[in-house]
Design brief:
The structure holds 2 protein chains of 2 kinds.
Chain A (H helix, E strand, L loop, with lengths): L10
Chain B lengths: L2 H23 L8 H14 L10 H23 L17 H13 L6 H15 L2 H10 L4 H27 L6 H13 L1 H12 L9
Helix pairs in contact in B: 1-3, 1-7, 2-3, 2-5, 4-5, 5-8, 7-8
The chains are: A little secondary structure, B mainly alpha.
Family (chain B): Belongs to the ERD2 family.
Membrane topology (chain B): Multi-pass membrane protein
GO molecular function, one term (chain B): ER retention sequence binding
Chain lengths: 10, 215
C-alpha cells in the first residue's frame, strides 16, 4: 500500500 | 510520486524557465500578462505557507521555493526592470484581475475542508490558480500574432495541468482513500480553460505556422 501524504502535491 | 505527477511538475518548471529565458535574455515581456503573473505570485504565496509548518521532501520544498522565487522575480522584472517594463503591453492587458480575487476568497471561506487559516488560504490558492490564466488568454487573443516563446509558455502550463489530471486518475486507482474533490474540480476547470488555446496551438504547429488566435 502506498502511503498518501496530505498535500504532497505542488 | 508517479510519472504523470513528475511530468506535470517538469512541464510547469519548464514553462516558467521559458518565460524567465524570454524576459532575462531577450529583455522582453511582450505578450505576457502581468495580471496573470501577479495572480500566480499570490497563488504561490498563499499555498506554500506550509513550507514553514511541515516538511514533505527536499524535492517538494525546493520546487515550492523555486515557484515562489520565480513568480515574484517575473513580477519584479515586468514592473520595475528598466528595459523589460517598456515592452509590457499595458494597454492590452486590461483584464480586471482584482475581480477574480474576491470571489475566490469568498468561495474558499464557504467551501473548504477545514476552517483553519492555512486551509482556507490553501483552498483560495486552488480556486485562484484555476482562473489565473484568464488575463493571459485574453491578452493572447488580443495580440493575435503570438510570439513562439509566449505560445510555448502557455502550452507547457496547460500540459502541466493535463498531466496533473492523469496523476489524480492514477492515484485514485493505486492509493486508498485518495479523494480530493476541491483540488480535482478546480483543476478540471483550470484545464478546460486551455482547451481552446490547445486547439489553435496544435493547428498552427501542424501547419508549421505562427500561432494566431481568432479575434
Amino acid at each position: 500500500e502506498v502511503e498518501t501524504d496530505e498535500k504532497d502535491e505542488l | 510520486m508517479n510519472i504523470f505527477r513528475l511530468a506535470g511538475d517538469m512541464s510547469h518548471l519548464f514553462s516558467i524557465l521559458l518565460l524567465l529565458l524570454k524576459i532575462h535574455t531577450i529583455k522582453s515581456c511582450a505578450g505576457v500578462s502581468l495580471k496573470t503573473q501577479e495572480l500566480y505570485a499570490l497563488v504561490f504565496a498563499t499555498r506554500y505557507l506550509d513550507i514553514f509548518t511541515g516538511y514533505i521532501s527536499l524535492y517538494n520544498t525546493l520546487m515550492k521555493m523555486f515557484f515562489l522565487w520565480s513568480s515574484f522575480t517575473i513580477v519584479w522584472y515586468m514592473r520595475y526592470h528598466n528595459v523589460v517594463r517598456r515592452s509590457y503591453d499595458k494597454d492590452q492587458d486590461t483584464f480586471r484581475h482584482y475581480f477574480l480575487i474576491l470571489p475566490c476568497f469568498i468561495l474558499a471561506l464557504l467551501v473548504h475542508e477545514k476552517f483553519t487559516f492555512l486551509e482556507v488560504l490553501w483552498t483560495f490558492s486552488l480556486y485562484l490558480e484555476a482562473v489565473a490564466i484568464l488575463p493571459q488568454l485574453v491578452l493572447l487573443q488580443r495580440t493575435r500574432n503570438v510570439d513562439n516563446l509566449t505560445g510555448h509558455y502557455v502550452f507547457f502550463l496547460g500540459a502541466y495541468r493535463s498531466f496533473y489530471i492523469l496523476n489524480w486518475i492514477y492515484r485514485y486507482f493505486t492509493e486508498q482513500n485518495y479523494y480530493k474533490w476541491i483540488t480535482w474540480i478546480s483543476g478540471l476547470v483550470q484545464t478546460a480553460l486551455y482547451a481552446d488555446f490547445f486547439y489553435y496551438y496544435v493547428k498552427s504547429w501542424r501547419n508549421s505556422e505562427r500561432l494566431q488566435l481568432p479575434a
